Amino acid sequence: MKPGGFTAFDANSHQALATTFADATETEVNTAINRANEAFASYSQLSPEKRAHFLRTIGDKINALGDELITTACTETGLPAIRIQGERGRTVSQLGLFANLLEKGEYDTVIELADNDRQPLPKPDTRLGYLPLGVVGVFAASNFPLAFSTAWWRHCIGPRCGLPCSDESSCCPPCYCRISGTSHFSGY
């Protein structure tokens, strides 16, 4: 293992796994942030339909990981397979839910014009809009390796809102985070 790196561990046997990881350098972190900023310019302009398609594609890719994802998460967390399978199902279902909301116009701008004749008081002009503001940094929790961690924050919340995410997927569980994080965007 190179200095500054770390190794994944089997949560049940407490033995180091074969895969080692290097800590990102400041240059690598800045490169990731710059690339996410570049992606923001185009992704934030995508139509809701394209964002919905993107979310469903991520769900399909999570499912396509099959047993490798479940086995890896179980090895690193010590959680039972049924728990990880449930988290995978919930994550993929929520991706589909957000895709449905995008297609139904849930995040469209709403403009209600003023009504000076409304009683007892005039109604002011109100506007509700969703404006992507920029890159989101993700620091993932490890107690929910799928549902509220790397996959959830980077791939559910950010894309729904038109935000690319730069990920710091914590040291636990690193093998799972590598598998889940790299699969979603390859070939898309």
TrEMBL record:
Protein name according to UniProt: Aldehyde dehydrogenase family protein
The UniProt record lists the keyword Zinc: no
Gene3D superfamilies attached to this UniProt entry: Aldehyde Dehydrogenase, Chain A, domain 1
Organism: Colwellia maritima
Location of the Aldehyde dehydrogenase domain: 15-150
Keywords: Oxidoreductase
Superkingdom of the organism of origin: Bacteria
InterPro entries: Ald_DH/histidinol_DH (IPR016161), Ald_DH_N (IPR016162), Aldehyde_DH_dom (IPR015590), Aldehyde_DH_Superfamily (IPR050740)
